[in-house]
Fold this sequence. Notes:
By secondary structure, the chain is mainly beta.
Amino acid sequence: ADTVTINGADSLTIKTTVAASGNIVFNASITASNAGNALTINCAGDATFRENVTSAAVGTFPPPPPPPLPFKGVVVTATNIILDGLVLETTGTDSDVSLTGAITLSGGPVTVNAVDAISFAGAVTGNQNLTVGVASTIAFNSTVGASSAIGTGTGDAITVNDTGTCTFDNTVRTQSGIHQDGVLKNVQTFEI
């Protein structure tokens, strides 16, 4: 299978779905702009994100304009998901982030923010710090740092900014501390 590489000096606007039978590499920032729908990335290989992924307000009509409609979230399904020093952020009602596949943090600190829920449905690894923020729930459904502790060793390896709950369903290993503003639930093992 081939690799699809998307480059750009400016932001790339995606309406709804990107799919590939091989790998996808995003070297440009992504602005999702399909009002009321999720940005969906499906690929059989690796999905690599090297720039920020953000929502865009769309759907205004003259006069009078209704409020802008942000997209509903980000859904990524791939064998491996590489988050390369970026911010992945959704806004708007019911906006989730769902990452299904082995997740690698690389190239710099990674921040994932959503309004409703964040789901990491795969092992999280990498030598970078991770910040997650949400108003509802965060779920780490697999190991975090199992093969090698995550984080840089400086500052908090994981910062959880949420008003809901954060669930770790398996082993958590970090190079340094974990900072939590909300409620930790169902932690199996912490190794710091």
